[in-house]
Amino acid sequence: MVWLVLAAFAATGASIAVPLVVQRVVDGPIVDGDATGLWWLGGLAAVFGLIEAGLIFIRRWTQAASALGMETTIRNDVYAHLQRLQIGFHDQWQSGQLLSRVTADLSVIRRFLSFGLVFLIVNTATYVTVVALLIHLRWPLGLLVAASAIPLFIMSRRFSRAYIAASRRMQDELGDVATLVEESAQGLRTIKAFGRRPFMAKRFGREARQLHDTAIGKGRLLALSSARFDLVPNLTLAVVLVAGAATVAAGGMTLGQLVAFVSLQLMLIWPIESLGWIIANAQEAMTAADRIYEVLDTPPSIVDRPGAVAVAEARGRVRFEAVSFTYPGTETPVLRRIDLDVCPGETLAIVGATGCGKTSLVSLMPRLYDVTGGRITLDGQDIRDIQLGSLRRLVGVAFEDPTLFSMSVRENLALGRRETTDDEIHEALGVAQAEFVYDLPWGLDTRIGEQGLSLSGGQRQRLALARAVIGRPRVLVLDDPLSALDVHTEALVEEALARVLHGTTALLVVHRPSTVALADRVALLAGGEVAAVGTHSELLETVPAYRAALSAEADADAEPGPGGNVERSGALSLGGIDDVFSR
């Protein structure tokens, strides 16, 4: 940036020197009829022109590289900060608003760094230098030109106040439109299935029209201000021409001085005309910077504690000690005084009605959220005292609603472990019954598309499960990862999981009674509290609420079959659950 500004100043200096050379030409060789002197001074003016052209090339080339470099650096910083921010932050923000900050807002800042900032510095210096030269050439006319800055200053202040509000409003509305587009793209199947395309189009059209009207209003402000900024120097120039001609006729200044004066004053027209654009660009960059700092100024709440240690290995003993949890921005606790002790290698199933806090409980283990009371320990050590990177290498996670990325199958699986071999991938795919990937056009190298929408729900769940088990984590958190599987595939996956879970501590959220077969013990959650803990048989015999919860799950999964018979899609009657254990 320093070299950029220096090159711009040097180019401006070369352009200012040309009118002074013209003065010498008019008052010297032209008046005296000296052809030789005319050629020498004409050549000098040409040299200054070539120097200016070369310096402008250097400035443009440098400013593009520097501005793009700064934009890239800021974008990397914002993206990295978004990755560090807790899940609670992303729950409260629209993804389209974040997207517009990382793309559109940074482009606005880059444009200001490329042109607006440079021209602001150079044009200001040019204005001051030229006005000083004009006062030196003819001080009454020079002071007149200097006085024209007063109305320009008043107009720029009024314009700035109005334009900054319009810029912020437009950038916020742009984020809203981006959110609508993203939601419509992700929910296209739902929109089509319900025949709501006209409704969504009308909704989008309303938001787009509002953005259009705001942009038109902003353009009207800029056009009106540009016209006013253009009027002042032209009126001043008209006065200077008339007064200057009269002064030359009276012998108060030479013709060469008048030519130089007018030439220098013409150099002020562009800085003044561009003033409205520069102010507009600066205001947009200011509001864009404010929007970006709304993200960067949000501190991550889930971070390594001072003195947090890296843990490479763990036995896998997990304890929840008087754990309570309340979602950020709410006051009602989701979990209250949870006490659980899971031995190394044990599988604990978590059962309960919808909304009782099962998913919230297991989300605390990899610190997607932090407890608001009590603590969770791994091998006796508070998980907040373990470095996040280490903790999340020790804890594998698979959710009911799997997230796949627009990358190859191999890359999606590798998210579960940085370094994987083909044998480990093959084993994980076998556990998840996801060998279908080998039948895809390019096998493991097949790109599966955004959100994995080219795959069925069951296929996405199986890939997510394979990703969770590929690293053989010491603690495995499974939030009902089999809900989208058919009965046959579910049985095969459960059989393979039973082998994987041997020796691995697992927290298993259960919505389907058949999945209870994988657990050594069961914890029943009710109203955010642990109502009972025991084996499946013990709870089935002694806890009516447990029987009711399993019955509700079984009924929810029941589907009418041919002839009106009820077929269980992976769910079993209470009497049939014991058959699972014997199987």
From TrEMBL:
SMART domains recorded: AAA (SM00382)
Highest taxon, organism lineage: Bacteria
Higher taxonomy: Bacteria, Bacillati, Actinomycetota, Actinomycetes, Micromonosporales
SUPFAM superfamilies: ABC transporter transmembrane region, P-loop containing nucleoside triphosphate hydrolases
Record domain ABC transporter: where: 318-552
Domain ABC transmembrane type-1: 2-284
Molecular function terms, GO-annotated: ATP binding
Record organism: Phytohabitans maris
Name listed for the protein in its UniProt record: ABC transporter ATP-binding protein
Localization terms from the record: Cell membrane
Chief place where the protein resides: membrane
Membrane topology, from the record: Multi-pass membrane protein
Pfam families membership: ABC_membrane (PF00664), ABC_tran (PF00005)
Residues that span the membrane, as ranges: 37-58, 112-135, 141-160, 231-252
Keywords: ATP-binding, Membrane, Nucleotide-binding, Transmembrane, Transmembrane helix
Gene3D superfamilies: ABC transporter type 1, transmembrane domain, P-loop containing nucleotide triphosphate hydrolases
